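Forwarding these from the shared drive since the link keeps breaking.
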Amino acid sequence: MIGNVKLQMKSLTKDQKVNTNLMLLLAGRMVSDLGTSIKMAVMPLYIIDIGGSAATIGIYSFFLLIPALVVFPFAGVLGDRYNRKTIMVMTDFGCGATMLSLAFLANAGLLSLPLLFLAQIIISTLNGLFDPATKGIVPQLVQSDKLSRANSSIAALRTLSGIAGPVLGVILYTALGIKTLFIINGMAFILSGLSETLIRYVHRKRQVKARFITDMLDGFSFVSHKKLIRKLCFFLLCTYAMIMPLFSVALPLFFRTELRYPDTQYGILQSILVAGALIGSILAGVLFGKGSKETKGIITGLFLMMAATLGFSALLFPQSLNLLGRETALYFCVFAGIISLLYVSIMFIHIPIQTIIQKETPASHMSRVFSIVGMITRGGLPIGALIYGLLLEELAVHQVVLASTCLLLIISLLFLSFLRQQGKMT
């Protein structure tokens, strides 16, 4: 598997300098993502352990995502006007300082849920500034015909850091507590920023005649007049709102309340989930990375996603638990296989869509377009997490997930119909 990733990276470009710049970018993201994956796997458990509920997890996820969505349109203009590398470095350093501050508060016994929410608001805001700059810089580091493979390789290498994160996170949390996790996460962000400072990137200043707000509205106008990009954004908005909260809200609650595995199994489950994303990233590059096969990748991902969500929903029913057992190896293997397949399908859909948008967008608008796309597509995440949290206070997990699955199937079938009507999307 790792060998396949290396082969993909060798094929990104013949220019060794560009390859070096990508390696530095990827190395920084892998280190940072390792710390983040550790924290994200443990925080729902930590919130439950200190007396939180499903609604509390939903509120935490809501505050984690909303600030980034608010700042995205402004971040896009900044990314197109100013040095994208500088934005990336400064936001990583800011996230690192915030996480180390949390470690200090935890050590002093002053950490509370309100302070935790405040820190996540700060980090989410900084991530909102970081993401459009990153999306905008990648097409400048690879040739257009190799962009699809570059995106799949970036996703694959970033996902590698997420495989070890959940298991390591649960072990560290159990043995050393939440403070150690904050320290690791903070240092990971700082190391990521240091790696990015070594990237050789020449910022091409453009003469800015329009006002800031005019530039921002120009980005919205570009997206609104591109029917294909609009449709892709709407589909991602719906699917992200229904799928991602399954892992951030429903899964930790289901694991804690319905299953009888030790905490280490939760970490292993999270790692298997991320491994599915890695496999999906690699396969997306191998199967759909040459030429213009983005439509084929999306359609394949849609069918896999519909099958996996049906299987996931079925496994949450009490009848499945009684049949397979709440603590058996058989149930764990089937459950892990289904959620891994679900993440494979997500990568089959996400990577081709990102490639299509990059091909449809000129370099001068890249950061603005991706900031708007990010705002739209991720807009469903906090709302979905909040709705999941509130519904899970009143209904059983399997009932909520079944309703979400049915709605997702309808949306997927409608999107498949749109793809057939459009024929080739690029």
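-- next protein --
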Amino acid sequence: MRTEFGQIYGRSLAVDNNAQNPFDAKLSDNIKLGGDFRGGLQASQTPGETDQNSFQTKRANIYIHAQLLENLTVYIDQQFSPANENRTSWLMWQTTDREKYLRLGQFYLPYGLRLEDDSAFIRQVSGINFATADNGVEFGWDKNNWSSQLAISNGTAGAAENNQEKQFSLRLAYIKPNWRLGSSFNQNEAATVRREMFNIFATINYLDIEWLFEIDQIKDRDDTTSERLISFFEINKEIVKGHNLKLSFEYDDPDTNINEDERTRNSIIWEYFPTAQIQLRSGFRDGEGIPQKADDNLNEFFVNLHAWF
């Protein structure tokens, strides 16, 4: 569900032509609807394998936000495609000044940059993304320029609980109008292999360019300990009204004790907003890794349509 500013941005600030009467999914002062559709053509080339291309529905979601009382909210995120499943469902109580909240249910864990792309190394490898909402409780506190969240969850990515251990997620950020700096920590005792993750992330608006950065350290412990290092860097530039250019670089070192096992991925993406609540995206991604892992050398091209309300 987009905030009021998110709706304004998608209807007028980002677009080439403003819609005269954009669709308003606000049913009443207390009940709002929202939705997303993402689909298009995906083509890939993997060394030693047959080239592939297919039309895909990446995501079709409906959101419901109900203000039951002044300080009590219910939220539901239901996905209908590619699979029919509930992504999040939670109840949240907020203080009257909106500085503190308590959330209970299934929700996205507070960790790092919340990118839309679940395939990004920092979201795919960490296992914290839009496909892995977990059941638990979360406490949040926003005061002045500080924003903090602490969550305790099952550690099963929404699946049934199978032991007494839990997952702990902590996120802290200092926010100013043109930049933010933050850090996250996550420890999952519930997994077969105990995992500890730590990251530092930052965003800044400088030279009319949006810069995003995150670096993660992941430690998996069983009989031995392995350490993984991941980084993400992206810039976004509005070339002209309604046209955005996105460049990103990703790095993944699966085991810092092993030399020359790293993989990288470079992406260039063009985004066009022809009118309110419509986005066209086209992009190319170049993956490079060791020859023994063909998937690490995957090249992708895609053209997508994104519509929302």
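The helical segments are 4-13, 121-124. The longest strand covers residues 52-69.

- D.
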